[in-house]
Design goal:
Blueprint: H1 5-18, H2 53-60, H3 106-125, H4 142-156, H5 159-173, H6 179-191, H7 195-208, H8 212-224, H9 229-245, H10 249-260, H11 268-280, H12 284-296, H13 303-315, H14 319-327, H15 338-350, H16 354-366, H17 373-385, H18 389-398, H19 405-417, H20 421-433, H21 440-452, H22 456-468, H23 475-487, H24 491-503, H25 510-522, H26 526-538, H27 545-557, H28 561-573, H29 580-592, H30 596-608, H31 615-628, H32 631-643, H33 650-662, H34 666-678, H35 685-697, H36 703-717
Length: 726
């Protein structure tokens, strides 16, 4: 291959650079299109694309200096005699100048050359011999890099320049810096008031050195590499804060314990951050211990941190301790505030201890804390939820608080729950007339109230009003309307609402899919339910147990019991935990088909999943026996279930009574009626109708009167006067 002069000059220029670094070689020739990036806090100097291994291998192959022209086709070279070569740098006439001056990197290249020239001058001033003529070259070992970093900062007081060299050298050695080197850089950054960069490096250090040994090693190296006590204290505080940010609160506590031996303790802000993290992660005992340690050092708490302790106590149901801490706030150096009081009030209202919550409102004024609309509204909401509207209005009047949107929503919510939609609509109208703008919750609550009384038309009217006002419905809004339409059998409207929800950019959740799927399972084509299942998975939404229960119930309803059993088996294979409803559906399906063997196998399988059959499960099995006329087996199974602790209800008793009566077995039916009365379960109209059927089967005259008379006799036997309310 012909040997080009330009190629030879390039290879000759590269010789002094190739062997500089102990970790290997990177040819420092840039392609036309490369871009430099020095932005990452702990990444290597990203000089993008280089002509590297190919040129290196061609250069060294058989000690030959032959290089394929194609490898260098995108490079503009400078004669070697114009280059200043040394073991560490190439100046503005060096290899780094070999770039296309028309490209976007030329300005970056100049900045790079300027930085490297500054570093060269500073290190020369510190006694570093950078000349290549005398054969001296710098090895970028850990020791040398740490010394260069310190020398650069001491000479220039420019932490950013030291960081520049830190990243550049990491690129050159082709591996991450050691913990000692990173700690040295962190100290320099903190000393140079670049704490945000130091935090970035610490976070990367924590990520790269996890585990029990990792935090201890970091603590040790931080101490070994420090030069200033003040900087050391700051770095240790930042380290604790980083562990808090990474939700490693236990490690943060270990670090604090370790640095206490150096008579160092984190700042008040870091301590408060750690306490907050401990409380939010429900580590109350650890938070208390750390608080005690802070008190010993004279570090106080502010009201917001004490409020977190109060919130944690109240969340655990220990309101007494929360209230006691609230009363002791002034002795802890913090003044009780409205936030802390409101936390206790909210907890009392949820219990609901409304008188106690109201009394705290009065005590707040005695403590010099003025109740605000939030604290008063909490009490009003508590009274509304228990239907005490007068008391709610009295609280508003006493504390002279104008009803806000939250208060009105409380009234509306309770009225809708009670089904009093006329009053709810009036309160809604009053809210609008007062100039308050109803929010999404207000409209959704009204719609939920109308859906509850099966008035879907008025519910849809409020949806129209909501859209007209420009208030965007939530996924929950559409879901309740879809569910209501499905229950009323209006699948066309349910489908329309589902499509409109997606058209508006809302993402249906698993509850939304389940609502529409349930409609298809009960009334619509089951094929559409399975299409929805496929749509869910395509949208990245994982079906839950309710989803599969809906599909299983739909298959059972259509007599496809084996297919339903297949889904149950698949659930178990995939690691799902079927619930009682899942098993009950399939047991009922097999039982109604007369396949009692499979039904019993599933009943035994339930115990393997630590599930106890409930009264619905037993009813499903017994109904199958009754339909098949196997009353002897049904009776034995029923009494065995009673012995096992089953609490039968009137529906289960009536199923068996009806089974006996359908065969004309009045005596056994009456025995069961007597048993149910003895257990405090009163016969109802279904019981009477079952006895009427029994007497008809036996061709007894006046079966209705005979059945009523028999029930009266059985009730009187236990001292109960029958009421003829049929």
């Amino acid at each position: 291959m012909p040997f080009h002069a330009g190629t030879w000059l390039l290879m000759k220029a590269l010789v002094p650079i190739i062997n500089v670094f102990s970790s290997g070689f990177k040819a420092i020739v840039l392609r036309n299109r490369v871009q430099k990036n020095f932005s990452s806090a702990n990444s290597a100097l990203a000089c993008s694309t280089f002509l590297v291994d190919e040129a290196y291998e061609a250069f060294n192959h058989n000690n030959s200096c032959c290089v394929d022209d194609d490898l260098l086709s995108n490079v503009k070279c400078i004669p070697a005699k114009c280059m200043e070569n040394n073991g560490l740098f190439s100046g503005e006439n060096g290899i780094f100048a070999s770039v296309d001056k028309d490209s976007s990197i030329s300005e970056n290249q100049k900045a790079y050359d300027n930085q490297m020239e500054i570093i060269k001058v500073l290190l020369t001033n510190r006694g570093w011999n950078l000349g290549f003529q005398n054969g001296y070259r710098i090895d970028l070992s850990q020791f040398n890099v740490m010394k260069i970093l310190n020398d650069l900062f001491e000479e220039s007081t420019d932490a950013d320049l030291a960081l520049y060299f830190f990243r550049w050298s990491e690129y050159c050695i082709e591996s991450k810096h050691t913990v000692e080197t990173v700690c040295t850089m962190i100290h320099i950054l903190v000393f140079g008031n670049m704490n945000h960069k130091a935090m970035d490096l610490l976070l990367h250090l924590i990520s790269d050195n996890s585990g029990e040994k990792g935090w201890h090693d970091i603590c040790l190296k931080i101490h070994e590499t420090h030069t200033k006590r003040r900087v050391l204290e700051t770095v240790y505080g930042m380290l604790v804060n980083c562990y808090v940010k990474e939700n490693m609160t236990r490690v943060a506590l270990k670090v604090i314990c370790q640095i206490r031996h150096l008579n160092i303790f984190p700042s008040v802000g870091v301590c408060h951050s750690l306490l907050k993290a401990l409380l939010e992660s429900e580590k109350l005992n650890l938070a208390w211990e750390f608080w005690k340690e802070m008190k010993c050092l004279g570090i106080g708490l502010n009201a917001s941190i004490i409020s977190l302790f109060i919130r944690r106590y109240c969340k655990q149901g220990n309101i007494d301790s929360g209230w006691k801490l609230l009363m002791e706030m002034k002795y802890l150096g913090a003044k009780p505030d409205v936030v802390a009081c409101t936390i206790v009030i909210n907890s009392l209202c949820k219990m609901p201890l409304l008188k106690e919550a109201t009394s705290i409102l009065f005590k707040m004024t005695q403590m010099g804390v003025l109740p605000d609309s939030v604290s008063v509204s909490s009490v009003v909401d508590g009274y509304c939820k228990v239907g005490k509207y007068k008391e709610a209005m009295d609280v508003l009047e006493i504390f002279n608080i104008s009803p806000n949107i939250f208060v009105f929503n409380s009234f509306i919510s309770k009225l809708c729950t009670d089904g009093n939609m006329l009053m709810a609509a009036k309160v809604f109208q009053d809210m609008c007339e007062m100039g308050l703008i109803p929010d999404c919750f207000s409209y959704t609550t009204m719609m939920a109230g109308y859906c509850k009384i099966k008035d879907i038309n008025n519910a849809l009217k409020y949806l129209g009003k909501m859209l007209k006002r420009g208030i965007r419905p939530s996924v929950a809004t559409y879901t309740l309307l879809i569910d209501s339409c499905c229950k009323l059998g209006d699948m066309e409207m349910a489908e329309y609402l589902f499509q409109r929800m997606m058209t508006e950019g809302l993402v249906p959740d698993v509850v939304s899919y389940n609502a529409l799927m349930n409609g298809y399972g009960k009334r619509g084509p089951l094929k559409k339910a399975f299409e929805l299942l496929h749509m869910m998975r395509s949208a990245g939404i994982s079906p839950d147990l309710v989803t599969y229960n809906i599909l299983i119930h739909g298959l059972i309803k259509r007599g496809l019991v084996n297919e339903a059993k297949d889904i149950l088996d698949e659930l178990i294979r995939r690691g799902f935990s079927p619930d009682v409803v899942t098993f009950t559906n399939v047991i009922g399906g097999f039982s109604n088909k007369g396949n009692f063997k499979e039904a019993f196998l599933l009943l035994f399988c339930m115990s393997g999943h630590k599930l106890e059959p409930d009264v619905v499960t037993c009813s499903a099995l017994l109904n199958g026996y009754c339909r098949a006329g196997h009353m002897a087996e049904a009776d034995v199974l029923f009494h065995k279930m009673l012995d096992d602790g089953l609490k039968a209800d009137v529906i289960l008793y009536n199923s068996l009574i009806h089974g006996f009566c359908s065969l004309g077995n009045i005596d056994d039916a009456c025995r069961l009626v007597s048993t149910m009365i003895k257990h405090g379960i009163m016969p109802n109209n279904s019981t009477h109708h079952a006895l009427v059927l029994g007497y008809k089967v036996k061709h007894v005259e006046n079966p209705v009167e005979r059945a009523a008379l028999k029930l009266q006799q059985l009730l009187l036997k236990y001292g109960i006067q029958a009421e003829d309310d049929r």
